[in-house]
Task: inverse folding
């Protein structure tokens, strides 16, 4: 037991009272000569929020003083909520007066100051443990003797004061990156220095660049990283080929999107008998090239994952690896890590092997072409891929068996409509097309899922350090609140009265709403009611997939957790996972899981924000156009309408001039006082675009029932997903 553990054990004892360092040393029998070391340890624990030091210099556990650790989630009006680290504790409301210098996303300790009805809690920040926003992106405004930056992130509600001489010659209206030099205190705003001038707001590319900077996504690789990549030989040594299982004679193929360049995975199938199939999933062996502790490895950990924007990819690894040596390009020998699975007619993996291999992908297939082969019987493609046609049919057969198995166990399968924003060479959005998932997507999805599960279960029973992809059970109170909402739409979560919801109940709900006008809002709110999946060295299972064992094994080119677990698997296979190495992994995996989860969230937020931005920019050129849409949500200030291209805008209740409308919070409807007309979720309406605010990402509609004959104005320019796919 180390000193930290001894201190926590001491402070957890029932009769422990807040004590000064000298008293703690006496209790633990620590020699006075070790005082400076103990002070350092306690200071570290204080920064982590593990212990709290009172004004009198006494140490105790935060929870003993009713202090709660978590992150502050701000509202644009200045108040916010503490999201506790302990998922069993409810969110705590923090008024403006209780922030005490905290900013959005800071990690803090909060003291509960007020409880309302034994449910809601209010608190104040007593200690800021970790600052989240060391740099901020915003718009610069200059005055004679100073300037200030208005943050793009509306959750950072204070402008940043810029002293004279710290503006880097920025001009009013420019987008800049500012580093905080003094944190807010009392009524004083934060102070900072401009470290980068991006360009004038509105200039091509500046909008996307601002979002990239806001989420701290590094675009350029350091010189030492690029040099390390450049020094890697593209030739595979003969001794490496000899020690691996040679699978180059098998019909491996990759199946990806048309514009994908980092091809992580290749698959091959065989039928053994009427009851059994053989599935090979071979994944790029990135760990062979990216060695632990190298510049490439450190940069990959820092980035956490590749980030996929509308017009570009910011890769986790330099292009020489991500698009070259590691990518499973057709007709090129590649080093891989393979999972070979024997699967029966019920979708059960009855036998498996995991081994190092070498493959040569036969074809670089696209989702579109596989779909055309399997579902449209395309004669030209059938001639081109005649030698693989039976393989693709077998892939479909196996995928549907695996899907049926997941359904039986209760796996929750969301099916959100997706859209792709098409931009020109200057980044201007010129179209939005819907993209439908087809059988080709399903094949790869099911094959990757079963490979991830098989690897996770294999490593779990070996009882060695590992990184799992986990999804915790949902907060029952959030699901109860969600159930009240869907009750107004005529739905109910089966078994919610018992307090333990099996994922099968949620699967059944999704089945019921599929294809209905309210599908998107129900699935969106359900997803928000669930916890986020994350990485962890603890295998606690994956709730939404209804499986005890799950990991991310299949994308080491673009996800760091996949890369680290490849290393562990290979060390085990080669007899190098010694006790010393296991201790090493036990020390580092928790931090890697935490960092990877954080970078994943940042990447997702940046991708989502850029997509929203481009959708709003697209609609800014279509003011006056009329569209058909579906009411996706109703509030006391109006209702949101989603168009067929997934763009969403607001019809303000003030624009409904035919009557005075009241909001019914129980049924989520607006009801006309005299006419009794009802606007409810799922109702089809015609709307006209009347205003677009690109900065605030807001689109305003008005009802346009009388103008629906002009609908072609809004739809004539809209191409189908199939038309788009045929052009690229």
Result:
């Amino acid at each position: 037991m180390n000193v930290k553990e001894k201190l926590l054990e001491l402070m957890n004892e029932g009769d422990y009272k807040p004590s000064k360092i000298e008293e703690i040393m006496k209790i633990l029998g620590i020699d006075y000569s070790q005082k400076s070391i103990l002070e350092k340890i306690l200071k570290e624990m204080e920064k982590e929020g593990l212990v709290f030091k009172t004004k009198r210099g006494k140490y105790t556990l935060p929870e003993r003083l009713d202090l709660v650790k978590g992150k502050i989630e701000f509202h644009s009006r200045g108040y916010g909520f503490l999201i506790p680290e302990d998922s069993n504790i409810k969110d705590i409301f923090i008024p403006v007066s209780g922030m005490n210098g905290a900013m959005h996303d800071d990690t803090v300790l909060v003291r509960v100051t007020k409880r309302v009805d034994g449910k809601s809690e209010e608190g104040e920040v007593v200690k800021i443990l970790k600052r989240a926003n060391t740099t901020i992106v915003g718009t610069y405004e200059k005055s004679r003797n100073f300037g200030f930056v208005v943050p793009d992130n509306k959750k950072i509600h204070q402008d940043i004061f810029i002293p004279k001489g710290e503006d880097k010659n920025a001009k009013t209206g420019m987008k800049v990156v500012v580093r905080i030099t003094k944190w807010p205190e009392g009524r004083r705003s934060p102070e900072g220095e401009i470290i980068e001038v991006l360009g004038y707001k509105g200039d091509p590319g500046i909008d996307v660049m601002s979002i990239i900077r806001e989420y701290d996504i590094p675009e350029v690789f350091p010189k030492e990283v690029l040099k390390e990549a450049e020094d890697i030989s593209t030739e595979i040594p003969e001794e490496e080929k000899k020690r691996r299982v040679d699978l180059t004679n098998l019909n491996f193929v990759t199946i990806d999107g048309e514009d994908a360049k980092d091809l992580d995975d290749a698959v091959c199938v065989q039928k053994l008998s009427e009851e059994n199939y053989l599935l090979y999933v071979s994944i790029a062996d990135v760990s062979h090239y990216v060695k632990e502790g190298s510049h490439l490895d450190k940069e990959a950990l820092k980035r956490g994952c590749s980030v996929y924007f509308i017009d570009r990819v910011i890769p986790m690894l330099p292009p020489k690896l991500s698009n070259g040596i590691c990518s499973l390009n057709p007709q090129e020998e590649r080093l891989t890590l393979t999972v070979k699975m024997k699967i029966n007619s019920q979708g059960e993996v009855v036998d498996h092997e995991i081994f190092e291999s070498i493959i040569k992908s036969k074809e670089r297939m696209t989702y579109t072409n596989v779909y055309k082969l399997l579902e449209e019987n395309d004669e030209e493609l059938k001639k081109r891929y005649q030698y693989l046609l039976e393989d693709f049919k077998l892939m479909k057969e196996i995928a549907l068996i695996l899907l049926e198995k997941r359904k039986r166990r209760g796996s929750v399968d969301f099916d959100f409509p997706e859209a792709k924003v098409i931009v020109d060479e200057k980044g201007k959005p010129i179209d939005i097309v819907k993209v439908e998932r087809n059988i080709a997507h399903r094949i790869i999805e099911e094959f990757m899922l079963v490979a991830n599960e098989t690897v996770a279960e294999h490593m779990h029973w070996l009882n060695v350090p590992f990184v799992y992809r986990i999804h915790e059970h949902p907060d029952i109170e959030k699901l109860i609140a969600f159930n009240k909402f869907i009750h107004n739409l005529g739905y109910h979560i089966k078994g919610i009265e018992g307090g333990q919801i099996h994922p099968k109940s949620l699967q059944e709900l999704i089945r019921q709403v599929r294809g209905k006008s309210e599908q998107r809002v129900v699935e969106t709110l359900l997803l928000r009611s669930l916890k986020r999946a994350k990485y962890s060295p603890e295998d606690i299972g994956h709730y939404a997939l209804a499986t005890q064992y799950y990991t991310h094994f299949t994308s080491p080119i673009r996800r760091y957790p996949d890369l680290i677990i490849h290393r562990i698997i290979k060390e085990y296979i080669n007899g190098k996972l010694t006790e010393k190495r296991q201790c090493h992994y036990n020390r580092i995996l928790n931090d890697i899981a935490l960092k990877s989860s954080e970078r994943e969230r940042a990447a997702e937020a940046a991708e989502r924000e850029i997509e929203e931005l481009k959708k709003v920019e697209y609609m800014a050129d279509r003011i006056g156009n009329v569209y058909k849409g579906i009411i996706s949500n109703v509030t006391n200030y109006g209702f949101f309408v989603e168009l067929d291209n997934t763009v969403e805008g607001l019809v303000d209740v003030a624009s409904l001039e035919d009557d005075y409308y009241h909001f019914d919070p129980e049924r989520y409807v607006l009801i006309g006082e005299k006419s009794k007309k009802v606007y409810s979720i799922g109702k089809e309406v015609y709307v006209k675009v009347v205003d677009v605010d690109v900065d605030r990402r807001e689109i305003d509609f008005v009802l346009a029932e009388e103008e629906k004959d002009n609908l072609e104005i809004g739809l004539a320019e809209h191409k189908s997903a199939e038309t788009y796919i045929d052009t690229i």
About this structure: Confidence is low (pLDDT under 50) at residues 713-728. Residues 579-620 form the longest helix (42 residues). The longest strand covers residues 333-344.
